[in-house]
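Annex B, item 7. Sequence and structure tokens for protein A, then protein B.
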Amino acid sequence: MTELDTLLAREQALSLPRFNADDAWWLGSYLREAGRAINAPVAIEITLGHTCLFTALLPGATSDNPGWIRRKAAIAWRFQCSSYAMNRKFSAAPDMFERFGLDHATYAAAGGAVPILVDHVGMVGVVGVSGLPQLDDHELVLAALAALQNKQKGEV
């Protein structure tokens, strides 16, 4: 199994039974507290479709971070996988932006935007973080999605 296959399998394994506004608030609050616990200067944004349901900037985050999230989320929507998976795919072929006709002002292949997947539905939104090194952004989001998945599985 390649690194990309492993990344994609981890994302698919985080599919949720549902996702709604209450779940977005819980997930965003979880990410905010996780970021605060490590003094992470991050921006957080969670969307359902293209509607923002949660956004926060922690101390040290800048006005550039939400722009990075939007660009990372755009690539996640375009390719239906995380922006970090696309970073790994694009790093293997540096001309991928040109090959797909992507604009760097609209898309960013950098870790931190992960699809919100719902069982038997597919991608319904994106959770994005920006402000840490890209792998750390990505891992922070995956940990939060795993926590939400565990919470939902524990509910009846």
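Protein B:
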Amino acid sequence: MKIAIDAMGGDHAPEAIVKGASLAVDHYHDLELTLFGNREQINSYLDKHPRIHIHHTTEKVENTDEPSRVVRKKKDASMVLMAEAVKNEEADACISAGNTGALMSTGLFKVGRIKGIDRPALSPTLPTTDGKGFLLLDVGANVETKPNHLLQYAVMGSIYVENVRNINNPRVGLLNVGTEDQKGSDTVKEAFQLLQQAPINFVGNVEARDLLEGVADVVVTDGFSGNIALKSIEGTALTLFSIIKQSFMKNMKTKLAAAMVKSDLKGVKDQLDYSEYGGAGLFGLRAPVIKAHGSSNERAIFNAIKQTYHLVEADVVSLIEKEVKALQEREA
């Protein structure tokens, strides 16, 4: 299996990417990785390995770059050439922790959409209290969606969760302002009807407050609401641990208490760390494209590579293609 990686994307590039790649090739003996980026910078962190290759690039995509112009203006950027390798079938999938908008644009124009998928969805797996996690899609690839797009998200998410995360007959929920069947906008109401008729385990409307309790294995929504939900969860977790840390640092008594529960608190923090589940998949493209978090450390990059490995191994793209074709035939 061959995976292309943007070694220059992310807050800790290229060090975190290179070290995460090294962990991955030690873990998977049939895995070959090509790191796209500045050869000199990559080599400063890389112990020579026969299954890690370097493709030297002279440019990289910055966070300030306009996503829609990256493919045309930065043809030699590490992210663009990484996606080009997938397009040319030199790699089975690709990963970047760089500019999210640029990766979505590059993936769309270079890798291309699956026939029958109107819009791809950006889809991270987020933590739940039972440790299983849930897939949320879309979280920003498309601000506005039609009912049929939400149906496609549900089908793609269900296939991914069942075949990569090994959850049998995954529960699919529609994010809404209430659990009653008739709640929400006209778009959401129409999507509800489509999801009821789809070949998935649709459990109805779900509310944001129940997401981390594991109310569903797959939750679908438009990119605007999904991004707000994602950022709210991220912000709440960070604020919560900041408050706890401040409370434990107040005086000597609380500091002693902190020392006693330090390992337990670390366990809770790790349970809420969504990077343990890998990156966000850009589902609906002709090959797996994974967006790792911008602040990814080497462990998070390793998990993103693991996720990508299992996506390719399970041939999720082909499964989505078959299901989308079957949906179209039923509608015809």
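Comment on protein B: The chain has eleven helices and twelve strands.
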